[in-house]
TrEMBL record:
One of its GO terms (molecular function) is zinc ion binding. Keywords: Coiled coil, Metal-binding, Zinc, Zinc-finger. Residues 109-161 form the FYVE-type domain. InterPro entries: RUFY4_dom, Znf_FYVE-rel, Znf_FYVE_PHD, Znf_RING/FYVE/PHD. This is RUFY4 protein. Residues 9-57 form a coiled coil. It comes from Rissa tridactyla. PROSITE patterns: ZF_FYVE.
Length: 165
């Protein structure tokens, strides 16, 4: 009997020691899990804060976009109004000028003081040359010196000397 009691006591002590080890392991596991839970809560709070910030920024952007869109619509409305005013003004001016006949300019005499090529008028400092081929009156810039033959206009020179062009 005492041996049996001693064996039971030893077994109980061994089971108690194993239970303490299991309890210690479970406590360590609980501590580790609590630390993970704490980190997860902190991450959740950070994500919630970031989400609130993003939502607030999105609402601000939406409000800014709405204000900009309203401003652009007002600008378009103003531009359409101005366009209508201008069209009415154009129509009124057209109606006022409809009965006015514009006189046609009379054609200049053939021997006026204008270059036949560039229509520059001959004055004191711009000399007039007679083309030796077509007899037209041309300025210095529109004529070519052909030496002993005199000057001719560029058109006649190009027709006579096609390789020069």
């Amino acid at each position: 009997l005492p041996q049996r009691l001693a064996a039971l006591a030893t077994t109980a002590q061994e089971e108690a020691r194993q239970s303490r080890q299991q309890l210690l392991a479970q406590r360590q596991e609980v501590a580790r899990l609590q630390e993970q839970l704490s980190r997860a809560r902190q991450d959740g709070e950070r994500w919630a804060s970031a989400l609130q910030r993003a939502q607030r920024e999105a609402l601000e952007r939406e409000a800014t976009r709405g204000a900009e869109q309203a401003r652009q619509q007002e600008l378009i409305r103003d531009m359409k109004g101005r366009l209508l005013e201008l069209l009415r003004e154009k129509d009124a001016l057209w109606q006022k000028t409809e009965g006015i006949d514009t006189p046609m300019p009379s054609p200049a005499p053939h021997d006026t003081g204008f270059c036949t090529r560039c229509h520059k008028d001959f004055r004191l400092l711009s000399r007039r040359y007679n083309c030796r081929l077509c007899q037209g009156k041309v300025c210095h810039a529109c004529s070519v010196d052909m030496g002993k033959q005199g000057r001719c206009c560029l058109l006649c020179y190009q027709q006579r000397h096609p390789q020069a062009t």
